[in-house]
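Final report, Chapter 2: Outcomes

The project's central promise was a pipeline that accepts a single protein chain and returns its three-dimensional structure in a standardized token representation, suitable for archiving and comparison. That pipeline is now operational. To close this chapter, we reproduce one record exactly as it appears in the project archive, with the input sequence first and the structure output second.
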Amino acid sequence: MYNHNGYYVGWSPYFNYDTPELLKKSQLLPTPNNKRYEWAISKTRDAKDVTTIVKKLQNLDEESEEFLDVVVELLNAVDEVDNIYCGNTVSPSLKQ
């Protein structure tokens, strides 16, 4: 997306322009859908289990290329659900 001045604008707070590789990975981030998610207290059929993905995120530096890959994975995983479950970990604090 470009703004009215012709500058390329990312649609996510995770967008990273630092290298051409990170820019390409950033373009895989889903566009905002204004959806609010509920954290399920226990694993239910309708809750998407993101435990494995969150554990990966907790061990990564936010500036790493792999971090961006895992954020894309997480956001795509929850895109079609309303409830999210994350077991045995602290709920992730993702940028708003």
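Archive annotation: The two ends are 19 Å apart (CA to CA).
This record, like all others produced under the grant, will remain available to the consortium after the project formally closes.
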